[in-house]
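In practice, a research group might receive sequence data for several interacting partners and want a quick structural hypothesis before committing to experiments. The following worked case mirrors that situation: the sequences arrive first, and a predicted assembly follows.
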Amino acid sequence: MRVAVKVRLKRSILDPQGKTVQQALQHLGFEQIREVRIGKLIELEIEEGQNRAETLRMIEEASRKLLSNPVMEDFEIEYPGETP
Amino acid sequence: MRVAVKVRLKRSILDPQGKTVQQALQHLGFEQIREVRIGKLIELEIEEGQNRAETLRMIEEASRKLLSNPVMEDFEIEYPGETP
Amino acid sequence: MKSAVIVFPGSNCDHDMLRALTLMGHRAEFVWHKTGNLSGYDLAALPGGFSYGDYLRAGAIARFSAIMKAVADFAAKGKPVLGVCNGFQVLTEAGLLPGALLRNQNLRFICRPVYLRAENLRTRFTQAIPPGTALKIPIAHGEGRFHIDPQGLKQLQDREQIVFRYANARGETDPGANPNGSLDHIAGIINREGNVLGMMPHPERAMEAILGSEDGRRIFESLVA
Amino acid sequence: MHQPPVTLTLALQHGLSEEEFERIQKILGRTPNFTELGIFSVMWSEHCSYKNSIAELKKLPRSGGRLLVSAGEENAGLVDIGGGLAVCFKIESHNHPSAVEPYQGAATGVGGIMRDIFTMGARPIAALNSLRFGRLENARNRYLFDGVVRGIADYGNCLGVPTVAGEVYFEDCYDGNPLVNAMTVGIVAQRQTASAIAKGDGNPVFIIGSRTGRDGIHGATFASEELSEDSEAKRPNVQVGDPFAEKLLLEATLEMIQAGILVGIQDMGAAGITCSTTEMSAKGGSGMIIDLDKVPVREEGMSAYEIMLSESQERMLAVVKKGCEAEARAICDKWDLLCAEIGRVIAEPLLKVFYRGEQVAEIPPHECVLGGGAPVYHREYRKPAYIDEAQRFDFSTLPAVENLQTAFLKVFSSPNVVSKHWVYEQYDTQVQANTTLLPGGDAAVVRILTPDGKDTNKAIAAKTDCNGRYVYLNPRRGAQIAVVESARNVVATGAQPLAVTNCLNFGNPYKPEMFYLFREAVAGMGEACRALETPVTGGNVSFYNESPENAVYPTPTIGMVGLVEDLAHLTPAYFRQEGDLIYLVGETKAEIGGSEFLKEYYGLVTGDIPSLDLELEKKTQQALLAAIRRGWIRSAHDVSDGGLAAALAECCIINREKPSGATVK
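A structural hypothesis for the assembly, expressed as tokens:
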């Protein structure tokens, strides 16, 4: 089973990479794209077997502990089959 | 309106970062996590106004031209309100 | 002074740190990250490098090494801990220092000498620095943009925890002298207790005139004084 | 395990000629099976066999002087620098992969050359590169340039080896065919070197490092074909570099070598397991039994063919002394490295490969390798017409220069001449805290410490050099100038030139006019190396640097290494003290053929290139070195692209913190 963890830079923090990509897009004629933010898409292949709640709890712990840094990042877990 | 573009390394391509993070997770006791692949989550803030098809076509072009490297990456567009 | 230079897989400034400490009269030894103790040492140094390849985030994985528990206890006992570049990143990830180091604003790795202004000369890491001088010390990093939330910044300022700021050759801070966009030009900070220093510039690369500067010695001299 | 039937057409598709296919059948006494065909095709590719170049390379001075091993004997050159130490260095190209994916192409190029050095037991102390792109007005070239520089920076910086010198050229001929040459210099105690040899019946064979995947299969043959539109589609697989795994591999390899538990070790570059097993066995006159089931793989269902030819990065093949297996595993465990015993050495000179209970290959290693059974060809050559035409160019037809100032600024702002600070600021130039002369001047200089950290008061100077335009206009003298100029750069820092490595970037050898350029360039290189007593320690040949539109300038990149006998001799390139006198050493003649000035001001690449008297050049260099050693010289800089004007201007501004001026009569 594959579960995705989206790790985003906190809104308050400047994202120079997003800004640079946005300028490049403008340059290529994509004016409608107002802003770009670039985060990480961490996809985990998880052994079946646990129920949904337990799996979510485990991924949440992994996200808090390692996959994201609370000082600068937020994370969101995307369970298969659910609208983000 | 916010649209997300998920950019992933193609399956066959080695992901050293994902491999190292997976080993670290194992070390921390998260044995159920078999594999980790790390890609980019590119979130675009788009001016309203166009219909869905036109917006999708525009984002697809931006993704092919700039947001992803076709030699080694695939991309997937996540339109708001739709299950990935 | 007996100093431990902690070696993570991927630390590549470990030999440089060992040589700098030895040059200043320390008895310095490598301590492998898998061992769990720092007993018998007077200083713990976390050197620069790319621990675990800086994968995911610089220092994100190294902070879970066995040695980091010992580093936390060592710091809690008030013993001096020096984190340089990757070492500073590991200390913030481990919560031993506040804030975080983000990607450089120009999105590129930067390697060049910079000038530092010593903001607090009353710490055990800066007491040998003559006042009003700018230290010429090289930087070499891709993620050196210091960040902290507004309250955190206020605390750092109020408690004089900001130890080094990027400056020009005359020791004045100005935007042109800030290489990576660091908040408030911060290049190095200490914890509240004043025994843990994290700095992005590499003092161990500024120990000999033949390498371009000897200003790095001031920090090691302060430790011994 | 279904394997396709082997026919002549399949052999031709593998890049083998009909004669080569027949030769394989004669060697084996039967038709090779699919895996064996793959092995021969990659071992007899241009990249591994040097079949179209070795006949010319043999004419180079490849031994003597301070060389501890003659060229081709080992993975890299080994030169005695006294005090029981040796300097180990080599340059290699990764042009084709960088044209497809610049970041990973350049990164894996650095990874590959680093392994060639530490596989010999040497710790890398400096990395250099030589890069060539089409002009930056073209967006694709900007993309390639940015990606290559980032790839080199990220890999070298993560590995902890300072990237201290290099060169970057922008010429139309490199459109679509960028050249990415990477060089590494290492230091080793002479009694702690390792050799790429497999001998001793029963000694276990280990594969160490990353898992094996389907990366870059046909990477070796890939480099031997011209880039064409469909070649991009044929190569979905891009090799990805893992500098972190390489750092673990570096430390574990040095630890195993110094522990004395290895018979031999070789890195896995092009052609992966195939190349390392055959070359090590051939060198030891022995054989191997290899069981591919034991190879740690990254993907399921890989065939024997794929495992044998895979070019996954960051892997080594080590022959461990019988009885030391546990110690080898312990060192690998310490560094969290995979370490699998995949076979053993046998006395019978045969490589026997088994997979899933079947024997999938049995080949005499000697027959596969360069210097053994690999074919050697003598290609046809014919002088291209443009050379004589260019040399008949009448310079008097050129309009006079009205304003020298604007002419100077035009040349001095040419991308080939301007400061490359934007490039090398992205490299960690000071890790290991031994870099005593930073990039920006002539050669970079790195202080030498003994393996246990003691200062030897000596330093290594190193530089990469080649003016492709000169070699295009006059291949023989152009190559001489490449050698002489790299030596000048080294001497200008106070070092005695010792030896050379080379990376020969040329077009398609089957075109007689292309081969003429290659043959003349190699001859010129040999003459200059003999005159300067800097033998060739080895290097790399990269042919087929052509695309449908154009072929690159013939570019024999030279990597020169020199020794600073005493740190007091260190000589920077920038002016240092007001009132110092400026001397021009050597005679200035009215020679602007092939110059940057002729190209930038008149838009011409023509004429004959500057004359060169090798004996006078040697005397000039030795005289400058003698003056430096007597303490008379405060700074020295060689006059090259942009001529005297550019050289003087550079001396004023190289030291960015203390720029100066100069008045010249």
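Before designing any experiment, note the following. The domain at 2-78 of chain A is CATH 3.30.1280.10 (Mth169; Chain: A ,). Chain A has a mean pLDDT of 93.
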